[in-house]
């Protein structure tokens, strides 16, 4: 077995690469996690994320992903916000964007750092490696807990006594036999802050998440219309939600963010400005950002919901603009927004024969509610 001097040097090099912590697990250490994931999927709590069910066998057993792996190095990369992420929720004419999406795409940043560290490990000790950052069927959080990096809190995210919750996870699988860490104990205690703050009650019980009710799922993963019962609860959050992370008391120990995650421009842009983006403008504005992945249609769907929740009559013309968009997904949610802000204009604008069934249904709902 490779001894402690290598792991000490590995930790030092990881810090030099921008990581804030490191821990090592065995690929076999997460055998029970696959069973829990299967139960979660059987209950339908993964929603439209079919890729989680499709690769359940790989997620359940890291050795199925790479049989030669003998150790999994789990690493934390900090993205701690420099501002209160909940403050934007009171600025109803502005857009709430999850902290992790305000700067560079973490996939690119973390993978580059993982490759640099992996090359160092090969040069120093040999062996082979594979690196992963949220792009393969790897159960990062259970592996990180098994390694001792932190524990999965009641909100199901990883929490660390040294780092809080504001960090990304990356993994290096290696054929080297490295000393393994001890599983981290749960330190949530009687705290319920993350559960109680959730606007949509997405946690049916502590340590359980129903993704179908989660605002991050609804604004990012969900491809179609946002269910009407959740729209008023989303507020002005247009991409993700940080509420359960932001209230965690362990974040008093959060480390300084990697500068590449600092917001590029205004972290809370005006909704009226975002509503005017055409496809080319959307792609240009969010180049190099994870936001670009959802496309203009889903993005403006979310903007329309936020406009409808603003309570700002000055945004009724913005809602009207969205209700006339060429994309039916945007148009339907724009109709919903218009009905909430300007019932009179909704009645005047009623489109009896919109060619899209979803939009036509939204007009019927809107006009019934505008009576």
Would you kindly provide a written description of the structure presented here, covering whatever features stand out?
This protein has 371 residues and is of the alpha+beta class. The strands form 3 sheets. A 4-stranded antiparallel beta sheet has the order 1-2-7-4, sandwiched between helices. The protein has a two-stranded parallel sheet with strand order 3-8. It has helices at residues 4-16, 31-42, 50-54, 56-60, 62-65, 106-125, 140-147, 193-197, 215-221, 231-234, 243-246, 271-275, 279-285, 295-309, 316-322, 328-341, 343-349, 357-369; strands spanning 21-25, 71-78, 96-97, 129-132, 151-152, 158-159, 167-174, 237-239. Helix 15 packs antiparallel against helix 16.
Could you give the topology of this structure?
Elements: H1 4-16, E1 21-25, H2 31-42, H3 50-54, H4 56-60, H5 62-65, E2 71-78, E3 96-97, H6 106-125, E4 129-132, H7 140-147, E5 151-152, E6 158-159, E7 167-174, H8 193-197, H9 215-221, H10 231-234, E8 237-239, H11 243-246, H12 271-275, H13 279-285, H14 295-309, H15 316-322, H16 328-341, H17 343-349, H18 357-369
Parallel strand pairs: 3-8
Antiparallel strand pairs: 1-2, 2-7, 4-7, 5-6
Helix pairs in contact: 1-6, 14-15, 14-16, 15-16, 16-17, 16-18
């Amino acid at each position: 077995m490779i001894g402690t001097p290598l792991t000490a040097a590995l930790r030092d090099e990881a810090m030099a690469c921008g990581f804030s912590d490191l821990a090592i697990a065995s690929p076999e250490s997460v055998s029970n996690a696959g069973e829990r994931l299967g139960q979660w999927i059987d209950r339908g709590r993964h929603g439209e994320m079919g890729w989680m069910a499709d690769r359940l066998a790989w997620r359940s057993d890291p050795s199925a992903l790479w049989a030669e792996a003998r150790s999994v190095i789990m690493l934390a990369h900090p993205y701690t916000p420099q501002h209160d992420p909940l403050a934007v929720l009171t600025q109803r004419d502005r857009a709430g964007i999850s902290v992790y999406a305000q700067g560079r795409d973490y996939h690119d940043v973390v993978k580059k750092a993982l490759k640099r560290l992996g090359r160092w490990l090969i040069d120093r000790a040999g062996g082979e490696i594979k690196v992963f950052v949220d792009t393969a069927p790897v159960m990062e959080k259970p592996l990180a807990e098994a390694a001792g990096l932190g524990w999965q809190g009641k909100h199901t995210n990883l929490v660390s006594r040294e780092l809080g919750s504001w960090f990304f996870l990356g993994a290096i699988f290696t054929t080297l036999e490295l000393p393994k860490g001890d599983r981290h104990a749960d330190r949530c205690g009687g705290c319920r802050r993350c559960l109680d703050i959730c606007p949509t009650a997405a946690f049916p019980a502590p340590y359980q998440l129903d993704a179908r009710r989660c605002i991050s799922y609804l604004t990012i993963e969900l491809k179609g219309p946002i269910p009407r019962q959740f729209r008023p609860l989303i507020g002005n959050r247009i991409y993700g939600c940080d509420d359960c992370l932001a209230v965690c008391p362990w974040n008093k120990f959060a480390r300084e963010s990697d500068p590449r995650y600092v917001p590029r421009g205004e972290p809370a842009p005006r909704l009226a400005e975002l509503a005017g983006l055409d496809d080319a403008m959307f792609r240009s504005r969010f180049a190099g950002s994870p936001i670009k992945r959802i496309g203009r249609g889903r993005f403006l769907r979310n903007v329309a919901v936020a406009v409808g929740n603003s309570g700002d009559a000055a945004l009724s013309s913005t809602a009207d603009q969205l209700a006339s968009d060429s994309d039916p997904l945007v148009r339907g949610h724009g109709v919903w927004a218009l009905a909430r802000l300007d019932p009179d204009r909704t009645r005047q604008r009623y489109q009896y024969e919109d060619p899209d069934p979803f939009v036509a249904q939204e007009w019927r709902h809107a006009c019934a509610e505008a009576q």
